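Quick one: structure tokens for this chain, please?
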Amino acid sequence: MKNRGRRGGPPRIPRRAIAVAGGALIACGAVGASMMPGALAEPSAMPAVRDFLIAWQVGNYEAAAARTTGADKEEVADALARVRQQLDAASLRLSLGTEVEGSDVDQIVKKGDEADARFTVKIDLGENGQPWEYPGLMHLRRVGGEWKVVWSPSIINTKLKPGQRLAVVTEVPKRAPITDTRGRPVLREVGAYNVGVYPGQLADPQKTLEQLAKQAKMDGGRRLDAERLLGRVRSAPPQDFLPLLTLQVPAHNALVRRLNAIPGLQLRQIRAPIAPAYAPELIGELGPATADRLQQVGAPYQPGDTIGVSGIQLLQQRRLAGTPTVRVVAQDETGKNTEELRSWPGQEPKGVQTTLDPAYQARADFTLRALPYPASMVVVRPSTGEVLAVSNHGTNGENRAFEGHYPPGLTFGIVSAEALFSQAGLDDGTKTTCPGTVTVGGKTFANRAGGEGSLANAFAASCKTSLAQLSGKLDAQALVREAAQFGIGKDWGLIVPAFTGSVPTPANDGEKAATMVGESGVEVSPLAMALVAAAAQNGTWKPPYVLKDQDITKTVQAPAPQSLQSESIASLKRVLNRTATRGNAKSARVSGDVVGVAALATYVRGGDNKTVSWFVGSAGDRAFAIAVEGRVNTAKLAAKFLTGHS
């Protein structure tokens, strides 16, 4: 609640306290009593000015009113008290004197029983986001030997007339669009309600807004701040509709019904482009500015404003929304005869263009749509690193395509094979065996026995024991170094949150063998593995990006592309080609350029046994990774994506 003196604010301040507090005012340049030799001191107007300004500043409005000539002291006190409310001011400071450029102006000019005093008003508009400083002028008259402030609304502001009030007009610009790689909006138009009030029509603003805040409990326990909403309502023009909340339907139908029963609330049905057409976990959602969200986005956004609450909508809130133009006006209660006193222009919104390709996005969504398990998929362009599609299915709003933590299993064999080729001198034709079981460093690995053959054939057959045996060709740091060459565990400089992966340094031979096959604490996200597939296809690992706007991307430091050895990449491509033509990824081979690997990884998390099915591969200048939290044939899913049909 705002200070209202004895109407709920601080108690009346003793005169002695006022005199002490008045030191700051006198420091601005006191005018003492006029003295003539041999004459008695003439009473000064300074104490009256000082006491009035101090009482007004500290919220002792009745004391301030008592220093005036106003016939109705309660009306004067109310007028002074309403200044803070009408501006939703965080603070109001008053000082004697003003600065007029190029001249020295006396603070108090006296002429007989009349005087004029100049002072300065400094108001912090708080959530309206701007400081406001302006010169004030009051007229004084000596009545019965005592100086009194001649009351007029112009004391509050020199342009304020009788019957007028102050108000803050906030003009919010239309939010700029988020677009795909072709420049087309990625938001779709949906039905919604604007919930708001006509401030001048509220019988009990505080009660109405407390009921609104109580009913409008947001996801995660977030609530609107009723007190801050009250300040916003009191400062708004009383005759204008003030939107406080935007609710999408049918998702918020129940809340709409509850709010419709609150006296004073107005609900306006609208249609607006506010819902993501696809990739909602990346694009993000819009929602009301609750207290905790305001801490993230900061001023000048206010309680109830529709702001980005997740994804790109949140991360690029200031760019997409711009900032409002704020105007302080004087107006009568009908809203007519409005005069602008001060304005602060806002910033125009700017659009954000993503790298998402709607054709690939539609295919990715189609690929995962019918799965009975949570699943994620990422498609990237190997030649550039741009993300073409991000799809999440059944992930409860989480962007697991970017932020999921999964063991890669034998898909990590892409990294391990590249390490053997570049650091141990092997190639795809190196002879190896595929025993049913093998023990390395006390750790046993098992799979279906496959006999002797080339490394490419062993990889195609998902031969875990072959890679485990070959771990002896590499030192403990080799896999960590190779993973870093593929961007795993590196800072990608991505504008949105993403898990880049983790490869712990093996402590012994058993852990090293387990790391070779994507176990022993190795974790990746689908995006990380899509980038691995992209590097294998292109020969150079390139950092990912999802936004095309250069003025945004230049604000982050992306790592340089990392070229892999051409000879080892040639062997790796032959390995992945063999896997797609004769091995575990054969079902994905719908065209001659499809390469990749399918794998199944089991792990324990939170005491529960879990499974993730992978496909990691590429087709031309498209690399992609699919992760499904259940047992499925991911090679067939890859074919579904590539062909666009089941």
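Residues 246 and 306 are 7 Å apart (CA to CA).
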